[in-house]
């Protein structure tokens, strides 16, 4: 007697491949072929919640197109043979890269010896089971956590030390599709720089005359021990409303400021000499704009022999790489032209954008898929398998 079977095939090229699990970029289309070895099958159909259309059919098989696949789904090929129903199924998993990776702002100054909690947020990215959040200090990995929730949040706690002064912290989202035959895709946040400090145990020591004769000059000396980072200290010396111009010297964690004061006639009477030491100076926080990358195909659905222009672009300071080939310089596009062949159907083009900020390397990735349309005559080849048992 004959043993009949029903098969589900995904058309990744001109030849079909049976798959139990399909990995697909969000928004793409998929060609599915349901075929059976039954001599006289009835009602060959594809059961799915996705939009579908019949492309072609013949004795023993039917081909369908699924359009704009944006979420995970299950598809089932179904047919009747001699009154009995047969089914074959496959799962579709949609992947997408994170839209935004952001490390929360750090304190303007962090005391040495106190805990600092880092928080990272990641919007988008799928499948979540393959998405991981990594918090880093330079290249040192502080924590690695699965992405949960929307946005996904990752945290790490570090004990701030003197060595953390100037340290740069980042958050990296890793979408690991290597078990599914693709690559490891990383998106990194803009770096945040930490400034740690230690305050002295005692107030500044001020050496100045108790009285001054109008018109005469005297030296004023202000010393502060145990301040870190002393290089960022700002010193103000003043006699009443008269600002002095001190000369500042640094030895280890000790700061010394000296100036010469000349009393004016309008300052006659009791006046205060003030020494004020502060850490840091007001400034602007840098903002980072990371444009792209943008991957463009002149056509995404072509026939065999067609020319396809592929370009990868990003911002003016960003270096881009298209399928492993670097652009000539930052800000310039990476480009290539391919003549579509049978083997290019389903081919992915990978664009990687690289930006260096204060010695830190940031990465962003994007992919696009090319579909080489099959001729109708190819789709009309039935898949009939007979086995004697």
UniProtKB/TrEMBL annotation:
Family (UniProt): Belongs to the immunoglobulin superfamily. ICAM family.
Residue span(s) of domain Intercellular adhesion molecule N-terminal: 21-99
Location (main, coarse): membrane
Signal peptide bounds: 1-21
Record keywords, A-Z: Cell adhesion, Disulfide bond, Glycoprotein, Immunoglobulin domain, Membrane, Repeat, Signal, Transmembrane, Transmembrane helix
GO molecular function, one term: integrin binding
One CC-aspect GO term: plasma membrane
Topology with respect to the bilayer: Single-pass type I membrane protein
Protein's name according to its UniProt entry: Intercellular adhesion molecule 3
Pfam families assigned: ICAM1_3_5_D2 (PF21146), ICAM_N (PF03921)
Protein's GO biological process: cell-cell adhesion
Annotated Intercellular adhesion molecule 1/3/5 D2 domain residues: 204-281
SUPFAM superfamilies attached to this UniProt entry: Immunoglobulin
Subcellular location: Membrane
């Amino acid at each position: 007697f004959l043993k009949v079977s029903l098969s589900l095939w995904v058309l990744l090229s001109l030849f079909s491949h049976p798959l139990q699990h399909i990995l697909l970029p969000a928004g793409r289309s998929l060609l599915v072929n349901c075929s059976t070895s039954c001599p006289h099958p009835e009602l060959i159909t594809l059961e799915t919640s996705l939009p579908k259309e019949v492309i072609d059919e013949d004795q023993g098989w039917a081909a369908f197109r699924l359009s704009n696949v944006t979420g995970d789904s299950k598809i089932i090929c179904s047919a009747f043979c001699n009154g009995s129903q047969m089914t074959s199924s496959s799962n579709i998993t949609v992947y997408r890269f994170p839209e935004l990776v952001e490390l929360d702002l750090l304190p303007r100054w962090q005391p040495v010896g106190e805990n600092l909690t880092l928080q990272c947020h990641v919007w988008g990215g799928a499948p979540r089971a393959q998405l991981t959040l990594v918090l880093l200090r330079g290249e040192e990995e502080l924590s690695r956590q699965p992405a949960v929730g929307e946005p996904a949040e990752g945290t790490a706690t570090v004990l701030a030390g003197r060595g953390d002064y100037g340290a740069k912290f980042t958050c990296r989202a890793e979408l690991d599709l290597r078990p599914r035959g693709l690559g490891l895709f990383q998106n990194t946040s803009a770096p945040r720089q930490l400034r740690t400090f230690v305050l002295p145990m005692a107030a500044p020591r001020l050496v100045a005359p108790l009285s001054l004769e109008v018109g005469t000059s005297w030296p004023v000396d202000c010393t502060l021990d145990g301040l870190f980072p002393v290089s960022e200290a700002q010193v103000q010396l003043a006699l009443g409303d008269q600002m002095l111009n001190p000369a500042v010297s640094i030895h280890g964690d000790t700061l010394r400021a000296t100036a010469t004061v000349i009393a004016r006639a309008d300052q006659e009477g009791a006046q205060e000499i003030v020494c004020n030491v502060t850490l840091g100076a007001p400034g602007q926080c840098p903002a980072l704009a990371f444009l792209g990358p943008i991957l463009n195909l002149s056509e995404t659905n072509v026939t065999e022999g067609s020319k396809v222009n592929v370009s990868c672009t990003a911002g003016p300071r960003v270096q881009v790489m298209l399928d492993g080939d670097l652009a000539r310089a930052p800000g310039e596009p990476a480009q290539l032209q391919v003549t579509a062949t049978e083997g290019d159907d389903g081919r992915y083009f990978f664009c990687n954008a690289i930006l260096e900020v204060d010695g830190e390397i940031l990465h962003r990735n994007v992919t696009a898929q090319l579909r080489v349309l099959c001729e109708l005559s190819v789709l009309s080849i039935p898949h009939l398998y007979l086995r004697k048992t």
